[in-house]
């Protein structure tokens, strides 16, 4: 099975590798990073789709599906499970969604291993240290372990949330690796921007973690209206149970059923903190628009913030439609990508205006 899975991972990596080889770009290594970055972004979105369709346990073992490399070979076991419980967690469709997610993850792993190999092989002639691709390789290994635990620990919320945050960490580091291969620009920026950007990035990451906690606890519909929450400005809150991190899905730390007030708390905190994030990132966007080289990034931040607000509210009023929920997740990943680009450019080449 492991050999078959390795072959499938290699096959999934063939097309992006072909794009690198046929590219007219002179710096093939930078092109490889760019293709890996694009595929990682897609993987994060497909991971959100996997989670939102309840397909995380579509194959109840790891790394294969009922000990097989693909759902075709495990079809009889999957159908037997689906017959017993037609709505899941194991169905033919969910098994394929879960395994395609794993195949895409393996292909990203192959591309990152290739980056690390090239970086060490050509370390004397390359502009940068090979340690960043090496750290990425280590992170991919840790991410694979959390992917396994997501399944074996039955979607335990803290494990799934860390799995998401590691994926975004890898995305941000790939952005950093991609940007450092580009020609450096000298920017004249408002003095506040270099100081504000790192803080804004940390706040964004915290908000995404809160959003991941909403998703992994299935608390997206705990408040059925907006801007009020179930008709109240501040509903009854239960922080003790809401933020007990080490517990089973739907359970308290002591093993009892999670009270609904805890789900309301998880939802309310995420939507309330969103206003802090919105104000801070809007300030970053406004400051970025003051310089021609970063104006497009500032405009992009404004656009994605607007999309995040609209999709967040629409998720509530339209009862969590799949397409809008996936788009909301995509917006979070896109903000990480844009702010990673902006952080790199400001930190590596900015000259503050005195």
UniProtKB/TrEMBL annotation:
The question of whether Transport is a record keyword is answered with no
Which of UniProt's keywords are assigned here?
Cell membrane, Disulfide bond, Heme biosynthesis, Iron, Membrane, Metal-binding, Oxidoreductase, Transmembrane, Transmembrane helix
Pfam families in UniProt:
COX15-CtaA
Please state the pathway this protein functions in, per its UniProt record.
Porphyrin-containing compound metabolism
In terms of superkingdom, the source organism counts as Bacteria
Q: Does the keyword Ubl conjugation apply?
A: no
Localization (cell): Membrane
What is the protein name for this chain?
COX15/CtaA family protein
Query: Which regions span the lipid bilayer?
Result: 6-23, 32-52, 103-121, 128-146, 158-176, 196-214, 268-288, 300-320, 326-344
Q: How does it sit in the membrane?
A: Multi-pass membrane protein
């Amino acid at each position: 099975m492991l050999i078959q899975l390795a072959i499938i991972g290699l096959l999934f990596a063939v097309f992006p590798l072909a794009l690198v080889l046929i590219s007219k770009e002179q710096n093939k290594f930078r092109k490889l990073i760019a293709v890996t970055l694009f595929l990682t972004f897609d993987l994060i979105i497909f991971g959100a789709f996997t989670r939102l369709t309840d397909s995380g346990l579509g194959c109840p073992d790891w790394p294969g599906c009922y000990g097989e490399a693909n759902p075709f070979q495990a079809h009889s076991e999957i159908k037997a499970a689906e017959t017993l419980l037609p709505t899941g967690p194991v169905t033919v469709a969910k098994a394929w969604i879960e395994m395609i997610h794993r195949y895409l993850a393996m292909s990203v792993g192959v591309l990152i291993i290739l980056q690390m190999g090239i970086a060490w092989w050509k370390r004397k002639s390359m502009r940068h240290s090979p340690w960043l691709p090496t750290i990425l390789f280590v992170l991919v290994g840790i991410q694979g372990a959390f992917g396994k635990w997501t399944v074996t620990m039955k979607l335990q919320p803290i494990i799934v949330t860390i799995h998401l945050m590691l994926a975004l960490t890898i995305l941000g580091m790939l952005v950093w690796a991609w940007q450092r291969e580009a020609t450096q620009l000298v920017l004249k920026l408002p003095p506040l921007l270099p100081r504000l950007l790192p803080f804004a990035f940390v706040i964004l990451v915290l908000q995404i973690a809160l959003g991941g906690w909403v998703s992994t606890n299935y608390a997206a519909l705990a408040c059925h209206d907006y801007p009020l929450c179930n008709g109240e400005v501040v509903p009854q809150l239960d922080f003790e149970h809401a933020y007990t991190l080490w517990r089973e899905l739907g359970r308290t730390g002591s093993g009892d059923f999670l009270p609904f007030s805890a789900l309301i708390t998880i939802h309310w905190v995420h939507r309330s903190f969103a206003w802090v994030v919105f104000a801070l990132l809007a300030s970053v966007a406004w400051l970025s628009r003051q310089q021609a080289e970063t104006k497009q990034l500032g405009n992009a931040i404004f656009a994605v913030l607007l999309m995040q607000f609209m999709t967040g509210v629409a998720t509530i009023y339209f009862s969590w439609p799949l397409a809008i929920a996936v788009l909301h997740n995509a917006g979070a990943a896109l903000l990480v990508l844009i702010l990673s680009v902006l952080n790199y450019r400001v930190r590596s080449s900015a000259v503050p205006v005195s």
